[in-house]
Amino acid sequence: MSDASALTIMHITDIHFGDAAPAALDSALEAIETLKPDCIALTGDLTQAGRRREFRQADSWLRQITRPIVAAPGNHDTPVYAIHSRAFSPFGRFGRLDLGGFWTGGNGLAAIASINTARSFQLRRDWSQGAFDLDDVEEAQAKMQNAAPTGWRFLACHHPPFTPTEALVASRTRRSGRALALLTPPARTIVLCGHVHGYFFSKDPVTSVHTLTAPSLASSRERGAGAGFVLLTVTPASVAIQRWRHDGASFKPADKIDSLAAA
Predict the structure, then answer these.
(1) What is the DSSP code (8-state) at residue 164?
(2) Beta carbons of 28 and 249 less than 8 angstroms apart
(3) In the CATH scheme, what is the homologous superfamily, with its name and number, of domain 7-261?
(4) What's the pLDDT score for residue 1?
(5) CA distance linking residue 214 with residue 194, whole number of Å
(6) Phi, psi angle pair for 56, to nearest 5°
(7) What are the pLDDT digits (tens) for 219-238?
(8) For a tag on the chain, would you pick the N or C end, based on fewer CB atoms within 10 A?
(9) More reliable by pLDDT, 128 or 92
(10) Exposed/middle/buried for residue 22 (C-beta within 10 Å: 0-12, 13-18, 19+)
(11) Cα-flanking dihedrals φ and ψ of residue 62, to 5°?
(12) CA–CA separation, 3 vs 78, rounded Å?
C-alpha cells in the first residue's frame, strides 16, 4: 500500500474449483501479485460440489496467495453428494482450509468480518438459498465497531440480502431486513456477496446499507457477466469500486467505477 491514508480490498467469489477455468485462475494469481491488495474478501462457492479433490485444488491455489484472506463459505462448499458429511459436518472441509474470518487495516480505516449464510439443509425446496443468523451478524458488527469505530465496515457473506436488479439468479435470503438493520453506521457499511455471478452495487431503501456482489472469478457459469473480480480502494472520505474483467489472457479494469462517499 503506497498511501498510508488508503488501502485496497480485492473482492473475489464463486471460484467453483471443479468447474474453474485454469486461465482465469492463473490470471487471478497474477493480478493479486501485481495489485497487492491489503486484504482479499472471498465470499463463497470456492468449490463446485464440496468434494475433497476440489478442496485440495483450492488449497493448492490459495497457498500461492500471500495476502490476508477473509472468507465465508457458499452453498456449493457443503458436500453436495456426500449426504452423511453434509448432514453432520457440512462445512468441515471448508473450515480445514483455516481461512481468516476477520481483518482490520489502516489503523481503523476499515474492518472486514465474515459470516456464513449458507445452509446444508433447509425446510424449503431450494436449499441453495441463504439465511442470516442474527447472532452472527451482531457478533460481526461488534468486532467491526471495535476495530473501526469511525472507519468503513465490510460484512462478507455468500448470499445477497435481496435479489439485485437484473440478476439472473434470485436471492431469497431469510432474515435479510433484520440483519441489515443491525449493521451500523449504514452510510459506512457495505455487504460483500457472491452467489449471483454478476456485478451489482445497490443501496437498501429501508436501512441504507449498500450491497456489492462480484462476478464469478473462474466458473464456466458466467451468466453473461464474464469472469471477474472487484477492487475497492478505501480512503477516509470514500470507497472507489472498480470492476475487473478477464479478457481471455488477463484481468483488466472495466471502464465504470462506482463510489460511495462518507456521510
Answers:
(1) P
(2) no
(3) Metallo-dependent phosphatases (3.60.21.10)
(4) 40
(5) 6
(6) -65, -40
(7) 988 887 789 999 999 999 99
(8) C
(9) 92
(10) exposed
(11) -65, -30
(12) 40
Name the β-bridge partners of 239.
Answer: 234, 260
Q: At 39, which amino acid appears?
A: C
Of 74, 14, 35, 26, give the one whose Cα is nearest residue 215: 14
Element (H, E) at 142: helix 134-147
C-alpha cell, 260: 460511495
Distances (CA, A) of 157 to 32, 42, 49, 142, 233: 21, 8, 18, 16, 20
Query: Is residue 175 classed exposed, middle or buried when 0-12, 13-18 and 19+ CB atoms within 10 A define those classes?
Result: middle
- Are the C-beta atoms of residues 41 and 11 closer than 8 Å to each other? yes
- Per the listing, cell 497474477 goes with 30
Domain ranges of the chain: 7-261
Q: All 3 cell numbers of residue 193?
A: 456477496
**What SS3 state is found at 141?**
helix
* Partners of 90 in beta bridges: none
Alpha carbon of 150 to those of 3, 146, 147, 242: distances in Å?
A: 19, 10, 9, 23
How confident is residue 4, by pLDDT bands cut at 50, 70 and 90? low
Give the confidence band of 2 by pLDDT, cuts at 50, 70, 90: very low
Cell numbers describing residue 207: 436501512
